[in-house]
Each structure stands twice: as structure tokens, then as C-alpha cells.
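writing this on my phone so excuse typos. first protein, seq and then structure
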Amino acid sequence: MRLKIFFAPLVFLIAGVIAIWYVWPTILEIQTRSLELSTSKDKLNSTLERKDNLETLKGILDRNKEKEDFILSYLPSARNEEKIVDGLNYLATDSGLSLINIAVEEERLPLIQDELGNTYDPNNTASLPEGTVIPVVAPQTRFLIVKANATGKYENVKMFLNQVYRMEMLNKVNSLEVKKVSIGGAPVEGEQAASDTLTATVEIKFGYLPSIHEEGESLSPVFSSKEINFSQYQRLKDFVTEKIPDLDEGQKGKSNPFLP
């Protein structure tokens, strides 16, 4: 009888241990899965919200097609050497300049350094070790460098630069060199040229904004909004259409510094 009384609690104890042994991991698994499910629901809700925002943003762009086209023309998503060359050739002809030659090259990116201090050249992907990933946290403006030589009168050079300055493309004149030329076309310095014809060498940078791939939680904050800020559009539009202000009499120099 005493043995039966002793074995009864022991049986319950063993049953409890076995139950805990098998049931407790299941409870932990359920808690883990529940947390993962809650996280997945949050991500799903965030994705659905961004999808809804994307549809709204698309509708805004459709209603502002003119603004979108202008901005994409001013800062395209891909390099377009043909458009740049054709545009400069047109402006040179319209300004009365004779375009001698024109060359286009990509501006080199700065060297990158990984966490271990190793330096790589992103301009030469063949030199990058296999598996090297270049982090891109945001779209970065790239530039094409255009070098052109042209001949014409001083007034033609000024007109050309004025028109380049107002091109509906992001650009910046890096350098400009203007010299006299002789009748044979050879540059001369320190002498009076036989005519008022000049040769101009100009270097211009044209920008473009490459598209980047985004996924997961690294999506741009723009998708968290249902609005597009066009506040800079009109300023940019006015900038490319307004005339460069004339200088005051006190600011003017010689109308042509290359003439006596």
C-alpha cells in the first residue's frame, strides 16, 4: 500500500517532466512563430501602404506630364552622348561658330575603400575582387565631360556660351580658353592676329542620374509619401528661360578684349 502511495506521485512527476519536455519547446516555437507572424504582418502592411502610395504618385506624375518630361530632359536617367553632341553642334551653328572637333568621356568615379582598408577602382569593374559589392545609399549624379574646339568671332563665342548656359540639360562649364588665330588657323600669342577670328577650347560637364535597384527595407523614403514636391520645377524652368542680365556701365569691359 505504501508502495502504491509512493509510485503515484512519481508517476505524476514523470508524466509532468515528459509533458514539459515535449510541450515546452512547442510553446517556445509557437511564441517564436507568433512573433515572426506579427513582424511579417507589419512588413505586409508597410508594403501595401507603399503600393498604395506608388499608385498615388503615379497618378500625380500622369497629371503633371509636362513637369516630369522637363525634369527628365534636364537630368536624364541615362547618358545620352548623341543628344549632347547634336545639341552643341546646333548651338555652335546657330551662334555662327565653326565646330572643329568634339569629344565625350565619362567622368571617373573616386576610389572606394572597404571596411578592411582595401582600395578599389569602381571605374574598372574587372579589377574588383569577385563578390565585391559597391554600396549605393542613394542615387548619385554622374557626369559626362565634353571637350570641344570651335572657331569664330568673339561675339559668336559669347553667344554660344550663353546658349549652352541655358540648355535644358544640367551642365557646367569647367574651363574655357580663347586665343587669336592667324589666317592659316594656327594659334598665335603676343602678336596681332590677321583677322578677328578666334579659336575657343571649352570643357563642359553634362549630368545624368542613373537609376538604382532598391528592394526590401532599403526603399527610398519617397514611397512613404503620397505627394511629390514640384517646388523647384518653376525655379528651374525660369532659370533656363530667363536672359542673362546685362552688366552695368561700370561693370563692362571692352566689347572685344582681343582687339586693340
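second protein below, same order as before
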Amino acid sequence: MKTNRCNLNQTGPTVYYHSFRACTCAFVRTRVMRRFAACAIAWCLAVPVRSQTDATEYYVVNNNGAHIYGVGIEAVAGDAIVLKLPGGGSQRFRKGTYRSGHCPKPEALKTAESFIRDKKPDAALAALDDAQKRYGILGWGGRISLLEGRIHAAQDRPQEAEAAYRRGLEQTDDSDATRARIAVALVATLIDRDRGEEAERLLHGISTEDPEIGTYVFNTRGRLLAAQGLKREAVLQYLKTILLFPKAGAVRRDAYREVIALLEELGDDRYLVFEKQRKEDYPQ
């Protein structure tokens, strides 16, 4: 039986023949592998490598849902987006040819947030206006509109606040966590403007998965229903806060207080049960 291996039990010319052949093949294979490795290393060094930051922070989602990545991005006139590509060059996306653009948090937005912390609302609004023009279609429009609306609301400009919040809803979708916060802020503005029915309709479309958002939604529904004289329906909304969010803290304690008051007004003795439970959950 022919073999390429060296048989230690063999003697004579045959063993030397097979040994020489095996060693020669091994040598050739080694040289080929070395040459292949050298070429692979040279190829890797020659090809520009896109960093993780570039690959994840600058991109456009086209109408088909595909992600096109780049190393920089810019919003230009006409709501178009220019994506800078690795190795030079760029790709332009006209309005209507993309779903969204994305970039890291812009410095203009960071500046605006610092003005807000320093209680400089006028400077903050100016910075937010600049950020909206440059980054509104690059994934930051919702956040910018939310901040603009909050500033207007704090300065007793409910009409401007409502306009900012509605723009923010247009700039976000259900996958954006900011959307629920914008909706909540708009609900508060509508209630302040005595537009409770409109606020209630909006509440039904807000996701309640986040505890902070969920407790606000349920408590606000309860408040609106109670104002309409629908006390039992209001109790059910407050109970959602109590049962679904056991770690909600102050807002959950408020929900207990409303449940107890409403049941007592209805002449329902079960308010005593909730009063006892409230004292157990919040002894102080």
C-alpha cells in the first residue's frame, strides 16, 4: 500500500524515498502558507479600515430600509442629506429617497443644553434653532423640538410650545424613545389650554412601557375622567399605576390618594382597604 508517511518499521531505500517526499511537501506547503500570510497582511494594511464609530454613528436609512454607512454626514438645502463615504467621495440623498439620517450628538445641541442648565432660555432657543436647521433631519429633530417646547411652556407661551411638540412628533416614529416624552409634554400643554378631549385621545396612543411615562399616562387619564364625573373609570386608571409600577414612588403614592378619595366620594367602603395598603407601602 502506497503512503506518503514515513513508516518507522520500513528500512532501505523506500523509507528514505517516502521521507524525502513527505519533507519536500511539508516544505512547499510551509512556503505557500507563509507567502499567503504575507500577502494577506499586506492587503489588510493597504485597505482602509472603517472604525467602529464611523460604522455605527454616520448613516442613512433608505426607503428600502437598508443602512448606508459613511464617515460624515450633512443636511443641505431642500431637506437633502450628503453622506461622506470612506476613502473619499460622497453620496447625496434627495428628500423622499430616504427614511432618516443619523449622526452623533451634535455640539450645537450640547451647547443648547448647557444654556438650559445655566438658565439662559434665550441663548438656548437660539442654539436650538441652529441645531434644528443643521441636524433636525439627522436623528435629533425630536429631541431639539422637545427642548424648544419645554422652554416655551416654562415662559408661558403655550401656543409656541404646542407647535414645537407637534413638530417633534412629525420628526419621530414609534421606535424613537423621545416620541413618548414629546407626546406627554403635548398632553400637559393641551390640558393647560382646556383641551382635555384632545389630550385624552393623544394619551391612548402613548406607549406605557417606561415607568415614568406609564404612570403619567394612567394618572392623567384618571384626572381627566374624574373631571368629567367618570369616577369609577378614573379609579381604574389610578389602579393601573398602583399595580403595574410598584417602584414608582411619589406618583404611585398620589395614585393611592386619588383612589381613596374617589371611592370615598362614591360611598364605596373599599377605600378603607386601599388606605390600609397605602400605609403599609408608604409608612411615612
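The beta strands are 59-62, 67-69, 72-76, 80-84, 90-93, 98-102. thats all i got for now
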